[in-house]
Amino acid sequence: MTDRILLRTEQLSRSFGSLLAVDRVDVAVREGELRSIIGPNGAGKSSFFRLISGEMAPTAGRIWLRGRDVTGLPQHAISRLGVAKSYQITNIFPHLTVFENVRVAAQGPARAFDFWSRAAALPGPRERAEELLATMGLAAKAGLLAAHLTHGEKR
């Protein structure tokens, strides 16, 4: 683990009218560090993650990613900086192969898209999909329909 701070919030707050959902949260997450956010329903956990991901703007406070102030940036811009969320409900294209599903996701961060090219001909997303499948231990299942994966593999 290093001392490099990947994510930092300072006095991060979000209110909905008189309801204070996130109340002046200060946090620093370093490279290689794992953290958990726990609490009862309604404690503000989901709101906190929506703030970090840019899905929702804070009422007050600041958010930094790798030293860059990203407070108020839209969700797509923060996503391109490497912030991703995993939802409880898995969304896949069950009738596409595992490889095709990952390639679709790999096409998302591209700065430009060649509308007239076949997706299979785009080298960047294809190579990235192969790399991701290898990293996740799913390269051997790349040709299977995604519907045949276990719940854990789909996530």
Give helix and strand order, one letter per element, not per position.
Answer: EEHEEHHHH
> Do you know the CATH architecture of the largest domain?
3-Layer(aba) Sandwich
Structural class: alpha+beta
CATH homology superfamily name of the largest domain: P-loop containing nucleotide triphosphate hydrolases
Domain tally:
2
Helix content: 25-40%
Distance between the termini: 26 Å
Q: Mean pLDDT score, rounded?
A: 87
Tell the overall outline.
elongated
- CATH class of the largest domain, please? Alpha Beta
What do we call the CATH topology of the largest domain?
Rossmann fold
Q: What's the story with the biggest beta sheet?
A: 4 strands, antiparallel
The residue ranges in which pLDDT falls below 50 over 5 or more consecutive positions are: none
Output the strand order for the largest sheet: 2-1-3-4
Radius of gyration: 18 Å
Task: Describe the 3D structure.
The chain has 155 residues and is of the alpha+beta class. The protein folds into two domains: 5-80, Rossmann fold (3-Layer(aba) Sandwich), CATH 3.40.50; 98-154, no CATH class. The chain is 27% helix and 21% strand. The chain has five helices and four strands. It has helices at 45-53, 75-80, 98-107, 123-135, 151-154, and strands at 5-16, 19-30, 60-65, 68-69. A four-stranded antiparallel β-sheet has the order 2-1-3-4, covered by helices on one side. β1 (5-16) and β2 form a beta hairpin. α3 crosses α4. The longest helix has 13 residues, at 123-135.
